[in-house]
Write a structure and sequence with these properties.
The protein is mostly helical and 110 residues long. The chain is built from 6 helices and no strands. Helix 3 crosses helix 5.
Length: 110
């Protein structure tokens, strides 16, 4: 699953920049694995799509590195919700909060 999401990211990167993403396998796999604790693969792919639509100069000038995407997820979620006027998944905000409380994970995971 982790490699599938990373390869999706790499393909989208190639489509945007017409060159291969300079993958740091250990770091990038760890980033995806950490995100998969909170989001399913399809949701992460939606985030990846949204990430490459961000025109923020900081993100663009950095070249859309995978490790920066994690910090952009709130912005991606907000933009997708505004665009679709519905949540990204069928999970409600209350369910997400409850799941986070019961997971035993802390903010230190991010």
């Amino acid at each position: 699953m982790t490699k599938e999401v990373l390869n999706y990211f790499r393909n989208i990167y190639f489509d945007k920049y017409e060159q291969n993403y300079p993958t740091s396998w250990g770091r990038d796999m760890a980033t995806i694995k950490r995100l998969l604790k909170y989001y399913d693969a399809e949701t992460l792919k939606q985030f990846i799509d949204g990430y490459f639509k961000i025109s923020d100069p900081f993100v663009v000038n950095a070249g859309h590195p995978l490790t920066l995407m994690q910090s952009q997820i709130p912005k991606i979620v907000a933009r997708q919700r505004v665009a679709s006027k519905e949540t990204i998944t069928s999970t409600t905000d209350a369910e997400i909060i409850e799941r986070a409380r019961n997971s035993g994970n802390t903010n230190e995971d991010f």
